[in-house]
Prior knowledge:
- By secondary structure, the protein is an alpha/beta fold.
- It has helices at residues 15-31, 45-48, 54-57, 65-73, 131-140, 153-161, 172-177, 214-220, 225-241, 286-310; strands spanning 6-11, 36-41, 78-82, 94-98, 107-111, 125-128, 145-148, 167-171, 186-188, 202-207, 249-256, 259-267, 274-282.
- Strand 6, helix 5 (131-140) and strand 7 form a beta-alpha-beta unit.
- It has ten helices and 13 strands.
- Helix 9 runs parallel beside helix 10 (286-310).
- The termini are far apart.
- The strands form three sheets. Strands 2-1-3-10-4 form a five-stranded mixed beta sheet, with helices on both faces. A five-stranded mixed beta sheet has the order 7-6-8-5-9, with helices on both faces.
Amino acid sequence: xTRGTELIIGTRGSALALAQAEGVAAALRRARPGITVRLExxxxxxxxxxxxxxxxxxxxxxxxxxxxxxxxxxxxxxAVHSLKDLPADLPxxxxxxxxxxxxxxxxxxxxxxxxxxxxxxEGAAVGTGSLRRQAQLLQLRPDLKxxxxxxxVDTRLRKLDAGEVEAILLAAAGLRRLGLEARITEYxxxxxxxxxxxxxxxxxxxxxxxLGGALGEAVRALDHAETRAAVAAERxxxxxxxxxxxxxxxxxxxxxxxxITLRGVVASWDGRQAARGEVAGPAPEGExxxxxxxxxxxxxxxxxxxxxxxxx
Length: 312
């Protein structure tokens, strides 16, 4: 431990980020009785640019850069992230030490009047800040109007309740962690709306040099093998595609009986073009399967879709 028996966790300051970090802190206290764990709130560029679209503003790194800088500088000992916020490649000197057990990875609909996606009236306004959700939503309901909406969960719910949109799309995991599961009006199955890579999973990031010491040992006690295997396959898919927040790509892995099944999609922003596929194989080969699925989708139209997106 870098401060005797005290650990400092770097986290964003939103209600959801704090709930996630406190959950990790509580697990560390249980795993290592006698240590003290406290949270250090760090404001990121993504928090400061709460109303800006993610792609033009800089993508996923907006939510983690300042936290990773604090970690590298030694101001915090570890960081807790929503895994879907992390780019495919980490800064030199940092490593993902543990992935706690994953929450529900599905996307959900929260409709002001209740009901399902199919029940929304023609032309209804649906809010989302995710190009991935936008693309798949328009595949399912091309008649709907997508309204860009950002901010934390509470902000998005307030905009919904104020009548700015008829419904919003959110991650089930965030609502469940905040105790807001009752707001969900429909869970969207992963075969219809493929979740974001890493959605529902947390990542505990540390300095590489600490992996072999007491800190690394303490953090590894929180690692969930099935979650690690699933997200490794999903992130290998992302890495092979070179995807980011400007590209509507998605992947979702499940494990059963020692085998992993990975579903992926690459889509245009308007949902009119999409390459979808699925691979399965032994769980230890998840990263290879992720790269294989990416290559397959690139060959079946995904490369043309990504090239067109990046040209804009």
